[in-house]
Here is the input.
Amino acid sequence: MALAIGIVGLPNVGKSTLFNALTKAQNAEAANYPFCTIEPNKAVVPVPDPRLAALAAIVDPERIVAATVEFVDIAGLVKGASTGEGLGNQFLAHIRETAAIVHVVRCFDDPDVVHVDGSVDPLRDVEVIETELVLADLQMVEGRIDRLAKKAKGDKDAAAQLEVAKRLVEHLQKGRPAIAFPERESAPGAVLFQELGLITAKPVIFCANVDEGSLAADNVHVAALRAWAAPRRAHVITISAKVEAELAGLDDAERAEFLASYGIRESGIEQVIREGYAVLGLVSYFTAGPKEVRAWTIERGWKAPKAAAVIHTDFERGFIRAEVMSYADFVAHGGEAGCRAAGVFRVEGKDYVVQDGDVLHFRFNV
Here is the structure.
């Protein structure tokens, strides 16, 4: 399965600079003026995972294939975007297609970089974006209510969805995101949410874009954002889009030295991807053989047949068993033969819940 993350925020907060760093190429024009991104830029980025190299060192495959994340750089939103201001709600449609949102928030002072509202205030900026997203969702739900009202007289399911939709409208009108709606997991609520693809139902990672000097310790802007996010249980990570752009052209040794010079161990790119996996409940399992070592992305809690289906649907349909080794055992014992000899090679059936880092072979018959 592919993970798609939309990068959003006000114009000129560093979204395109971050996107360029994420893709290790200047695929999005970064300029010091609003709306420099006109069309949504998309790129598929490999997920950094050092376990792949360790597995490859053992099996010596022809190729290594990492799991991937699709990043979508969406043009800057402004107050009134939900009603067509700025570049309008054509860009809100692009956000609906993603699984999670990275909300880039400017948390640095620089008089040479224009701010669309004339000053740096991360909480005001967050409120502007959240308000526009809630208003866009409100329009979607109100439109659905009109259609459900016509069906509700002779359709019990439609009638149940209609009542939930009305309560959802009241919830959104108070400025609350759909992800906090109490009935979102009820039977009619789940159907409604799935069909509407509400933007504010998606998990959000707040990405505080700081200057180089604020990477190791929060500045006042980041501290304010964290204080705001804490009671909402929102994720906040700190990056410097400028530093990420400089990291993009370095090899592994140079990257490690460069990061150490700023007192950090993990790049912003790695933080974004790791948090994306975390908020969506994703994990990776591996297949390892002479042709390839590959990481496969699944949702935490998936059982073996469903996990096998990400390789090919026939694997699920004709599932017989899964041959399982943990990553730690595979590395410690030097591969499959060593795992068999050590008694840590296991055969699991249809009810086995695949764990992060499992090295798997699937047996199937169709």
